Automatic annotation (TrEMBL):
It comes from Nakamurella alba. This is Substrate-binding domain-containing protein. Belongs to the bacterial solute-binding protein 2 family. Its main location: other. The keyword Membrane does not apply. InterPro entries: Peripla_BP_I, SBP_2_dom. Residues 1-27 form the signal peptide. GO terms for cellular component: cell envelope. Residues 27-90 are annotated as: Disordered.
Amino acid sequence: MQRRRFTTGAISALAVLGLVVSGCAQASDSASQTTATPPPTTAAETSSAAGSSDAPTSSSEATGGSGGSSETTESSAGGDGLSPTSMSDDPKPLIAIVSKGFQHQFWQAVKSGAESEAAKLGVEITFEGPASESEVEAQIDQLTQAIAKKPAALGFAALDSKAAAPLLQQAADADIPVIAFDSGVDSDIPLTTASTDNKAAAAEAAKHMSELIGGSGKVALVVHDQTSASGTERRDGFIEWMEANAPDIELLEPQYGGGDQAKSADITKSIIAANPDIKGIYGSNEGSAIGVVKGVEESGATGITVIGFDSGKAQIDAINSGIMAGAITQNPVGIGEKTVQAAVAALQGETLPKIIDTGFYWYDKTNINEPQIQAVLYQ
């Protein structure tokens, strides 16, 4: 099906103005943290990690229109097939993990899962990422430093696969197995990718948006980036579902806020100013979604359906208060666990599946307190 023409109106000029104003306040320093020996898992982390076994291995959808109980669709028998055993090497093998970010609660949950699994499997990890998900150069510097440590294995979630390609080749030439996670890497070098099926998850968000706004009206997308696989897949999955299933919904041209709350809020206010009849706005990750909520609140607009992605305290509060209709949550603790499991399995000579699907859920006010949802939410 041909993609419908996007309506741009006055968005572009206003959005650019918003980006310039908010960009001045963005911090540029990178943040990272190294864990030499993974600490014992805290009570909250133990609850999340234990609960993640109930998370779906492919996809999940809520029944009953705007919510209802969750229904899990399991993947084929045998799961991901990983069966690593605890490492007995002394010193412990080092797994260097470089993520797309560090400040969002999502990445802290991934880190928690990785640390917990490292402790179980007898390996050491480092976990670092740039301060914001727009800092490609900072991530490349961190990847360079990680490879220089000559780790036994490398976990990597790329902000820009093309920029990282030479370094990944360097790792491959040094026989360092690479495990991709989250958005993954657009390359054949990683042995596997532990991630959410982002296109399917975004399609689920689009389906709920269509239902909630009655199948017609203007809908905007505030996307975290257009360079990572997660950014493009969460954009395209949403758009493609709408094009195939909701002909009366008019999609505005996607806007990109770098996952930054302030930028995404300014973009949202520009969208609303240019389109006072807007009916729905979708934010493609934690920072984008929180920015959309803030933008709607600061604009004073009412009657706009907001759908987010990921969780975190701000989104959970927004759903409970009714400002946000619902969101897609991944299984971030599970992503961290599976990344370490896959790295250890690779070191032990196991053949890895190309994709390790860590699953997703739709959640809203009607099911947010269900045990299987609580197990994969993070605050």
